[in-house]
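Support request from a user on the community tier.

User writes: "When I paste my structure tokens into the form, the page sometimes reloads and wipes my input. The last time it worked, I copied everything first. Here is what I submitted, just in case something in the input itself triggers the reload:"
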């Protein structure tokens, strides 16, 4: 009795390499059609490579499609876990055996590349691949999950016209796709470098410096992400090289490996690893150059503010000198003013005709008022400063 099949998931594009006409043959398959009657129904025997462009999230949500893919391509359950979905990159491998005989070799890897354009818009390019290599037929099945442009176009393009000797090595796909990762990471690093260079060559404006801290920190944030993805990609490629070494050293009975082809694969992987490592150094350099620019921007603003403070200090110094002159002139006239004020009081009587100068016997009244009032004023001044002490401005 025929099953109705999964109707809710999108059809999955399947590309099969046809050596006869050197081209990809594309067809569309339902997610739950990959595995039925205990066998994989997807791959033609005469097709050495098959690319399946699936959606990981859609498949993860549909039990029928997920089970179909899991069984058809021996995907481990761990691959569907949340921490794999949220990871910034990984590498894994597995060997399948039947009655003690190795039947297949699976590897899975995930690379992330953050690309920033000239308008500061960014995009994450993701290469999330699961590779199933079948020992008896030397067929390679590549499940590429959630691939978007330009990765989606690059994968079939890079895997065209495979060398038949290389097909005996399960790692031949990585040798080709690693150069795509290097190419995309190279664009990502140079995009950051261009932003850094633009910041470095900005001329300081006349007057108050006004650095765009938000922009510089945004570029720094992208530079940190690019460095992180490069670190992970480099470690993934180191892992692929280690596993390739391990695979070659195990001498599996199914192996009909051409030593020259495997050596070429290994050398290409090694070269890509070195390129990623070099790009990582450049990316770290970009990040440090940005830190240098941020430090320079802070120092420039601080230097300008210090210059303004010096000018304010000089102006205050000139004001203080002027005030001292005014105080000196006031002090000079103060005793004479006091004497004239005392002698102009009505306690003194000067007769111009006789020349007699009389002082009133009540002159003590002046001192009775003047002395306590002076003491009271001094005390008020003292306690005022106690109650309301002067505090620094700010
Ligand atoms: Zn489904």
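"...and here is what came back when it finally went through:"
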């Amino acid at each position: 009795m025929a099953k109705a099949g999964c109707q809710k998931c999108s059809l999955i594009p399947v590309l099969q390499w046809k050596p006869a006409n050197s081209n990809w043959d594309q067809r569309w398959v339902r997610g739950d059609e990959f595995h039925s009657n205990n066998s994989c129904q997807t791959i033609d025997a005469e097709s050495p490579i098959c690319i399946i462009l699936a959606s990981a999230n859609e498949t993860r949500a549909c039990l029928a499609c997920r089970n179909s893919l899991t069984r058809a391509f021996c995907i481990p359950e761990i691959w569907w876990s949340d921490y794999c979905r949220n990871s910034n990159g990984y590498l894994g491998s597995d060997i399948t055996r039947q009655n003690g005989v190795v039947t297949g070799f699976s590897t899975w890897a995930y690379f992330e590349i953050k690309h920033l354009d000239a308008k500061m818009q960014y995009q994450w390019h993701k290469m999330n691949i699961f590779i199933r290599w079948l020992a008896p037929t030397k067929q390679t099945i590549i499940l590429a999950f959630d691939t978007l442009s330009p990765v989606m176009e690059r994968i079939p393009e890079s895997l065209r016209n495979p060398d038949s000797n290389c097909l005996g090595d399960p790692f031949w796909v990585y040798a080709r796709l690693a150069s795509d990762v290097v190419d995309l990471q190279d664009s990502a690093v140079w995009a950051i470098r261009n932003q850094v260079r633009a910041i470095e060559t900005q001329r300081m404006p006349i007057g108050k410096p006004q650095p765009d801290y938000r922009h510089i920190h945004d570029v720094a944030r992208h530079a940190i992400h690019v460095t992180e993805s490069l670190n992970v990609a480099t470690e993934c490629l180191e892992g692929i090289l280690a596993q390739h070494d391990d695979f070659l050293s195990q001498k599996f009975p199914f192996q009909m490996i051409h030593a020259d082809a495997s050596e070429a694969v290994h050398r290409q992987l090694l070269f890509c690893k070195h390129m990623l490592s070099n790009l990582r150094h450049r990316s770290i350099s970009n990040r440090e150059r940005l830190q240098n620019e941020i430090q320079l921007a802070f120092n420039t603003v601080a230097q300008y503010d210090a210059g303004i403070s010096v000018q304010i200090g000089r102006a205050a110094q000139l004001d203080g000198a002027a005030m001292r002159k005014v105080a000196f002139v006031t002090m000079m006239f103060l005793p004479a003013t006091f004497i004239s004020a005392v002698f102009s009081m009505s306690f003194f009587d000067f007769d111009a005709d006789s020349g007699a100068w009389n002082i009133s016997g009540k002159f003590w009244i002046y001192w009775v008022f003047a002395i306590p009032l002076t003491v009271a004023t001094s005390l008020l001044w003292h306690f005022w400063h106690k109650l309301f002490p002067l505090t620094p401005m700010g």
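Agent notes: The reload is a front-end session timeout and is unrelated to the input. The CA atoms of residues 384 and 390 lie 10 Å apart. The chain is about 50% helix and 20% strand. Escalated to web team.
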